Amino acid sequence: MPAEGQVLIEVAAAGVHLLDTAIRSGTTGGPFPTPELPMTPGREVAGTVAATGPGVDPGWTGKRVVAHLGWASGGYASLAVAAETSLHEIPDALGAEAAVAMIGTGRTAVGILDAAELEADDVVLVPAAAGGLGSLFVQAARGAGAVAVGLAGGPEKVRQVRALGADVAVDYREPGWPERVLAELDGRKPTVLLDGVGGEVGRAGVEMLDVGGRIVMFGWTSGEVTPFTSADIAAGSLSVVWVTGPRMMKRYGGLRGLETRSLTEAAAGRLTPLVHPPFPLADAAAAHVALENRATTGKVVLAP
User: Fold this and answer.
1) What number of CA atoms fall less than 13 Å from residue 148's CA on the CB side?
2) Is the model's pTM score more than 0.85?
3) CATH code, residues 109-249
4) How confident is the model over 180-206, as pLDDT tens digits?
5) CATH 3.90.180.10 in the chain, residues?
6) Which residues, including other chains, have CB under 8 Å from residue 152's CB and lie 6 or more apart?
């Protein structure tokens, strides 16, 4: 049974994050300490409140909710415990999988987009545009009236990026992809790089930016932060901001406000999360392999 201040959730969908694969392999670092064993991964769950603990409003019982459980806190399960303070009632317009995508990936996306300040005259370069974050960025760029340029790995992912509304969709695994992007832009250059990939792709993006362009950084899924120097920044009159981590927490005073905004945007249809077909809970290992091999599109979820 849930303890004081907690609820028990019958899980309908659990989010899978690349960080979960690092926890499993023991390769976490920086702000993410290796957790003590035994542990159950999973930080995002959606489902129905089955029971409430002492001090919790019993009116939560039977409601559809979504919650971010914090650091490595037991989401890969048919039943999960969450603090009452972490709960959001799921809007009627959203399914459990979409709610899970927006409570974690979505909250990060709206924080990044707030910092990016996209405008109608922007050309927005989105690496990993078929991923959970990238797919939301493409939609947001189009919603702002900007030109959306999506990079993805493989023909099927490129097709999906086009379906999201990207004006230009290119396979970054093909040689000469930067030249193809510039050719399709017909004389224009990217003005914003939303960089969560880093490495060679990120560096190529920096080199493509127009004078006065903006680099919005939030990760390095390639394993390497995008390399550039202050001389690069000066030569292109570029501006750079690192969004995630302490800056985002300081700016918003916590993440709950971002979660609320994210769910509201999805319920209103302004942002629609791309969700990979759910993996059964028993196949969590297969979900990790697929995520590590970049064989997924959008948010990866488990369905108990």
Assistant:
1) 26
2) yes
3) 3.40.50.720
4) 999 999 999 999 999 999 999 999 999
5) 6-90+274-303
6) 128, 129, 130, 134, 158, 160, 161, 169, 170, 171, 172
